[in-house]
Amino acid sequence: MPLPPPPRRKADRVDLKKLSATATPAADDAPAEEPQVTPPPPLAADASAMTPTARTGRGRRRSTGAVRAETPAEAPGADAIATASVAVAPPAPAAPPQTALPARAQREATRRSPTRRRAASDGRRRLFVLDTNVLMHDPSCLFRFEEHDIFLPMIVLEELDNNKKGMSEVARNARQASRSLDALAACANGDIRAGLPLSALGNTEASGTLFFQTELLPHALPADLPQGKADNQILSVVQALTQRHPERDVVLVSKDINMRIKARALGLTAEDYENDKTLDDADMLYSGMLALPTDFWSRHSKTVESWQQGGHTFYRISGPIAEQLYLNQFVYYEAPGEPPLYARVVELRGKSAVLRTLRDYTHLKSAVWGVTARNREQNFALNLLMDPEIDFVTLAGTAGTGKTLMALAAGLSQVLDERRYTEIIMTRATVSVGEDIGFLPGTEEEKMGPWMGALDDNLEFLAKGGQSPAGDWGRAATQDLIRSRIKIKSLNFMRGRTFLNKYVIIDEAQNLTPKQMKTLITRAGPGTKLVCMGNLAQIDTPYLTEGSSGLTYVVDRFKGWPHGGHVTLARGERSRLADFASEVL
To answer: Within 10 Å of residue 262's Cβ, how many Cβ atoms?
Structure first.
């Protein structure tokens, strides 16, 4: 006799008209919300081949789970998953009529939801078996798989218990994952054999079911694999589930590359956990600028409005190109024989956009603390760094593009000359390129000294000789004044702080996680400006990639914010040797 299906959830409400072919006719006095569904078919005796499907969960703004099914899901019958039964998922209600989206919204939906485009070809609810490292990497991963089900082997709970002690990030994540599992189990009043609805804690996007291993699932692995190893025990569970439920796609999700390779060698489906990735491809990262087409003026000469105000020239453009723009995005027009145009988007209204010309920082008269822009991207960056209306600036680029030098020059100019901010606070991720040199003596600032070589090099350039009529004594006094306005802080002691009227520089931001970036940015108080810089090609933090770096995360999230801006620097200006090495090495 088949076990009863799991408790009904809000997400199971369906349209009776859509179930007319599969539902049992209800009585005339039956409520409309309680359609009767035919029981699931019994399990097949033999295992069928698995079909690899789409990837697992994506970022929060793209898709918070694996694949959104569009057709009724197939579920196990009498022999439930680990003595549990899963009811047949009813068809989704009819979708509302599609409305025309702006070009910007369509582009975002296409770029962010690759899994939704493939959902129509795979209508089955998948069963994801999570490895321990996934839970310790992202404690909220349980709620990132949308309508699909999750299975946790018993050895995973054992490993969580072994890693819960300590103050490291891994230990904190293990404790948080254990608390989430305990809260879900509490909602079931102690009976977890039928599965736990993942939406019980208010996560409405997670409409699947969580299953624990409540019985022994023996399966013979190759003799050369040690049976006592935790990874091999998880592989044994995945193989047993694959044979026990051939009608379902059983997928192992693991952050361990070798674990995924061994699973595929055994004929199992294995995928990486990719919910932490903001982008699939780093080339899709928002660059902060857009080149106008060469026929822009010939096409829009009759519709462009222009006026002058406050020393700037404004242009109001309309048409399809205006729908592709974001606030504070730079646009430029360069054509042979025609005057160039460099402007920034300052207003978006419907299908029109207002552009404002930039201040030319390539000229010596507009030099910032003796520094002038050497290319187009540096000019864009200095316009953001010197604008008091911009509170958050992100700069990305390869080595030698001038990120630290421009940020430091703009900070000194606004702290010492314009007195817009009281001091400069500089910090960076202390991630070594090679082996660690051990503990460092001294105070917090002295410990951070070896990590701030870039600061010393740029200060030496900004305060180099020949600029003070007082000679060596005047240069030394200038350097002491500059040093007194620059504070070096460690990331470890940022929690709970609030920066008022500070100019904060976060260097090497590509080595920070999204959680660390959130911790730093939320320290900003009134009148504070934050500058994040980094090179996505030089990530030294383990388990971080170009798509999951904190720098990529904030660039994508702050895109289009009225008080934030981003520029990707392309040309290196350090030396011809450094430029050539960046290209060929």
So the answer is: 20
